[in-house]
Amino acid sequence: MQYSVVDATDRGHARSDDRSIAGAGIGLRHCHLEQVLRERPPVPWLELLADNHLAAGGLEHAGLEAISVRYPLTLHCVGMNLAGCDPLDHKYLRQIIQLRERTGAAWVSDHLCFTAHNRRHYHELLPFPYTEEALRHVSERVLAVQDLLQAPLVVENVSAYLRFADSSLSEAEFLAALTHATDCELLLDLNNLYVNHVNHGDDVDAYLAALPLARVREVHLAGHAVKPGYLLDAHNDRVSPPVWALFRRLVQALPEVPVLIEWDNDIPALPVLLAEAERARTERATALAARTSAAGVAADGRTQTAESVSPC
After folding, report:
1. Across the chain, how many H-helices and E-strands are there?
2. Which InterPro entries does its entry note (predicted)?
């Protein structure tokens, strides 16, 4: 099943306000909050893990408000349970909306997964079968969330450690259909894509060809752990060389897409994160320079060919 980008973008839904979100940002974790406030590192934007900041009041909220004055922000969630069968948690969603209003976050994102069932929260991003029935179910829930947000939701692909025989769509086809049905936007996690490629043999070319790249609002880069026989999306290390290669490839198609460095476990000193963000900036510049050079060579070749056959 394929849907064109024209179908997805002509429905009239307002796009996320991304004018202030550009370049390579980092995920802001609690251990770095005071240091960022004190030192004001030259990072262009920050992403908050929203679920860590939902408690009312306190010094941390004052710190976040100060951060929001100095840096453009986005919110990244792990609790919407978009593919779950429990009713949407409206209290949780109201808290997310209040946090967005306090921080002026440009957009809100969450994952294509379920995280709870029968009111039991698993604190994991769990996969589900990619079927037409699931597509209708998830679409209804995304539309409901967007009605509350009054903005497009940004939906992220996940790493998965099992596959369902009942799936009739690939993840990329499912995401493409979801954008068509709901006008949602996409967060493309390249580490998740690479982990699934290694663990399941997913075809990266086919994935990117099926995905409506015009709907990609943000890219995540992260590290993974090498386990016996598989990769684990652990967010505990620097971005790996194959994921950097994927990023260089992606920016050929999306030269200005905002990119974020995620690091959630074994969190390093802030300068390490800033160095990864700087590398993302450098990798993008290198890839775009190579593209420009290749285009120049191709144009020169066409000119020489034309001259060689000219009757003059």
Report:
1. 10, 12
2. MbnB/TglH/ChrH, Xyl_isomerase-like_sf
Three-state DSSP at 163 gives coil
Per the listing, tokens 């370049």 go with 23
Per-residue pLDDT tens for 229-259?
Answer: 999 999 999 999 999 999 999 999 999 999 9
Decide if 221 contacts 191 (C-beta within 8 A).
yes
pTM of the model: 0.88
H helices present in 31-170, as ranges:
33-39, 59-70, 90-103, 132-149
Domains of the chain: 5-309 (3.20.20.150)
**55, HSE (Cβ side, Cα atoms, 13 Å):** 6
Instruction: Classify strands 108-111 and 73-76 as parallel, antiparallel or unpaired.
Output: parallel
pLDDT in tens, 30-61: 999 999 999 999 999 999 999 999 986 666 78
Alpha helices in the chain (DSSP H): 5-9, 33-39, 59-70, 90-103, 132-149, 171-182, 190-200, 204-210, 241-253, 270-309
